[in-house]
Target: 2TM domain-containing protein
Amino acid sequence: MNQSQNESYIKARKRIEDMKKFYRHLRIFIIVNVLLLLIKLNLFNWFKDDYDWLQSPQFNDWMGWNFLGTPVLWGIGLLAHGLYVFTFKSKPWQELKPGFLKRWEERQLERILKEEEEKVSRRD
Model:
């Protein structure tokens, strides 16, 4: 491998790692917000009779804002993360086909290396 190919390979690996981090962030976002929704809908109903403070208007207002604010603010952060990782040229929804992570990494690596080679050839 020559120097430009090595640099392209390193950039491609970095970009793949960024994509994997985004997908991990997305999974955690979905899991946490589903759990919050389940808690909001069911869990407090079980405890309302046992604890008077759960029925207070201040607690309900606070919980309402938290259950609304968490997905909205975190969603804005997730959107920013996604925009950072994926450019508008990329179509990540096409890459969500089932398959093994290793094959996905290899396809991404090949695609990014091809893009880098095209950039280098345009400069020459």
User: Anything to note?
Assistant: The chain has a mean pLDDT of 77. The longest helix spans residues 3-47. Residues 3-123 form one domain.
